[in-house]
Amino acid sequence: MTVVLLLCDGCSIVVRRLFYCCVTIVTQVGQTENEPLLGLLFIPNVRKIARFVLLSPLIPLSLHRQSAVADQAAANIYMTMNELKKAFAAKLLNIKAIKLQPENPFTWASGWKSPFYCDNRKTLSYPALRSFVKLELAHAVLEHFPEATAVAGVATGAIAQGALVADELNLPFCYVRSKPKDHGMQNLIEGTLPEGAKVVVVEDLISTGGSSLKAVDALRKAGFEVVGMVASYTYGFPIAEQAFREAGVRLVTLTDYEHVVAQARETGYIKEEDVEVLHAWRKDPAIWMK
């Protein structure tokens, strides 16, 4: 026996938060119960019912009669929350979004040399993974920044991800350029948000944190309240962590350097000697290879 849950456009943020909690519970219970499952339908607009997102599996109706199953599901949910970073790290490695070039290092916008590069924008090319990132970022917003009333993406890498999250949460969206356009309206912020909006910023990757926090500063100067930031990946550099603390911005990410390297090492994606190079680089990336 299965059930179908419908979530319509216009639902309050509280209802949407409950929906995402149900998605997590449903997935774990369905795996434990191993019953025939149908799906969970999201109807973005009651006048456009042809467009929906199908998520599975669903809670079996027999759940309330099986406390042991519920206990196991709760344990699995806890495990899933703790394993999210590892799971996403594995997905990035599967699509070869992680590049390792110790002999021919990359040069970042900051001028740093790096043997390691995370191109998580590749996730946009894979529909299933794109949906995974969208839903997990949306879930992170609802879990950590439920007061958010608008979403802002950081150009250019997080424009698409930010728009996907805003669409999923049915919130207004804008994106912030690294600098104003040199023609036309010369906008720094593209799009229109409600006056005094509480904005959650979406970023694809955090390195030094410089460009991400420039976007935060631009939003604040425009009169918006930045409640926090969600990102797909962070290198976790101390310089970035300090910058976020000083700016008063809380950062939540789907995965990070430690989990990616650990997963790459475990699966043989990188060699043991590569790990030593990576650790030497991460210890002081500003002077590595200088």
Can you describe this structure?
The chain has 8 helices and 13 strands. The protein is α/β, with parallel strands linked by helices. It folds into 2 domains: 60 residues, no CATH class; 202 residues, Rossmann fold (3-Layer(aba) Sandwich). The strands form 4 sheets. It has a 6-stranded mixed sheet, with helices on both faces. A 3-stranded mixed sheet has the order 1-2-3, covered by helices on one side. Strands 4-7 form a two-stranded antiparallel sheet. Helix 1 packs across helix 2, helix 2 crosses helix 7 and helix 3 packs across helix 4.
Shape: globular
Number of strands: 13
Low-confidence stretches: 1-14, 23-79
CATH class of the largest domain, anyone? Alpha Beta
How many structural units, i.e. domains? Answer: 2
Largest sheet: 6 strands, mixed
Strand content: 15-25%
How are the strands ordered across the major sheet?
A: 10-9-8-11-12-13
SSE pattern, N- to C-terminal: EHEEHEEEEHEHEEEHEHEHH
So how many helices? 8
Radius of gyration: 21 Å
